Amino acid sequence: MSGRRSLSMWALRRQDGAASVEFFILFLFTITLIMGVLQMGLFMVAKNTVNLATFAAARAGAASGGDAGAMKLALAKGLSGLYVAKGLRLTGSNGLTDVSAGNFVQVSAGATAYAFAAASFPLNEIKILNPTKNAFTDFGVPNPHAKGRIIPATGLLTDTTVGAASRQTRADALLLKIMVRHCYEIVFPLVGEAIYQTMLESNPFHPDLLCMANHPWPDGHMGHGVMIESQAVVRMTAPAVEGNF
Fold it and tell me: Quick one: how far is CA 183 from the chain centroid?
């Protein structure tokens, strides 16, 4: 009887150990799944924010003749909502302080500054897709205020001539189309590492691997990212200045 009792206790201990291992594996899987779902929600917020910021950048470019500085500043202001936590840290917050009327200006300025630094990263860009150089060949006139040419933004309804080089009308040539590529920081490192390793194995030459890899961010910490791409089209209200394109 004593031998049988010892054997039963040994079997029970084995089962307890197996149950512990199974629980640990299930726990890790569940936590990873929860983090993945949360990160997907954050990514959708980031995608919508980048879309709105891209539209704001296009509007700024349309009103400034395609000035790159104006578009970049408008983009940073539009992206600042993603970096409120960074703005709070720049004001000396310990992570427990919320945005209030007393610190709103400082937090907003800090978030915009961080977004501007992020937009200045080599991985990120604002690319102008339209007007093209050919449009200036077809419709460009001397700039009365500086060197180079401009495409006038008046009389578009009556000018329906199609340019030989651009194959566009002047109205089409003055549709400012931009593409923004922004590397968004993944909040959960485990999710970022999983995305990076998956992409590395499936396509080691993917152009966005530098964004997905563990790399430094503007505040110096390391982390993974995912590239978000967005486009916007706005009719230019100011003449297109050739030097900006």
Answer: 5
Q: Show the tokens assigned to 47.
A: 């995608």
Is there a contact between 24 and 18 (Cβ–Cβ < 8 Å)? Answer: no
What token pair was written down for 84? 């409120």
SS3 36: helix
Beta pairing partners, 177? 130, 233
Radius of gyration of the CA atoms of the chain, in A: 27
Q: With 70 as the cut, is the pLDDT of residue 23 above it?
A: yes
Would you kindly state where each structural domain of the chain is located, as residue ranges?
A: 2-131+174-244
Kindly write down the DSSP assignment for every residue of 51-66, as one continuous string: HHHHHHHHHHHHHTTS
128-143 pLDDT tens trace: 999 999 999 999 999 9
pTM above 0.70, yes or no: yes
**Alpha carbons 44 and 50: distance in angstroms, whole number:** 10
CA 129 to chain centre: 18
Pairing of strands 141-142, 175-185: unpaired
Q: In Å, what is the CA distance from 36 to each residue of 23, 29, 155, 194, 222?
A: 20, 10, 53, 10, 19
Q: How many residues does the chain have?
A: 245
Q: Which residue, 188, 224, 191, 187, is CA-closest to 208?
A: 224
Tokens, residue 187: 């909040």
pLDDT in tens, 84-110: 888 887 777 665 567 777 778 888 898
Answer whether the bond into residue 131 is a cis peptide, omega within 30°: yes
d(CA 179, CA 62): 14
